[in-house]
């Protein structure tokens, strides 16, 4: 069944209704006369065949239109996803030092999501480009100790594929003293302090 995933929506119930009407009317219309006689449906067919025919045409037309619309919608969705993937792939090649520092935090803290101030230019830029996305569908916010608005963000699945250690300027192995000093100094001031930088994942 190709209709939308929500089983509580009006469109879902409309689809189900049309589907069962099409099946029921098709069975009656294309059933052999011998079977119609067995089920004593011949008088009903003689009186209401045109009604069954109209219901079958209407429901079948709806299902065909719905099926075609779903195919077109899926094709458009795939095209948008492909376009977004290309845009993000190009975007991660031109990260600023501040943006790289924000993205490094996910690896340094070994967290899949972080609460970040959404009004900071680096965070806002990464959000607008699709590199970062909100964990919560409603992008629920909170206030930090300084009163700045924060939103829980994670690196998008598309961006994660293209964020290599070299692109984020992360050490390839266990960080030495020089690496740790660089990573600490490069951290944006609005990020919460980290007592100990962990080995990058």
Explain this structure.
The chain is of the alpha+beta class and 201 residues long. It contains 8 helices and 4 strands. The protein has helices at 10-29, 33-38, 42-91, 97-108, 121-129, 157-160, 165-168, 177-186; strands spanning 114-117, 132-134, 141-143, 149-155. Strands 1, 2, 3 and 4 form a 4-stranded antiparallel beta sheet that branches. Helix 1 (10-29) crosses helix 3.
Q: Structural class of the helix and strand makeup? A: alpha+beta
Q: Element order, helices and strands?
A: HHHHEHEEEHHH
Share of residues in strands: 5-15%
Q: What gap, in angstroms, lies between the N and C termini?
A: 41 Å
Largest sheet: 4 strands, antiparallel
Poorly predicted ranges:
none
- Average per-residue pLDDT, rounded, comes to 85
Radius of gyration: 29 Å
* Outline: rod-shaped
Helix content: 55-70%
Number of strands: 4
DSSP helix count? 8
List keywords for this structure.
rod-shaped, four-stranded antiparallel β-sheet, alpha+beta, 201 residues, 4 strands, 8 helices, 57% helix
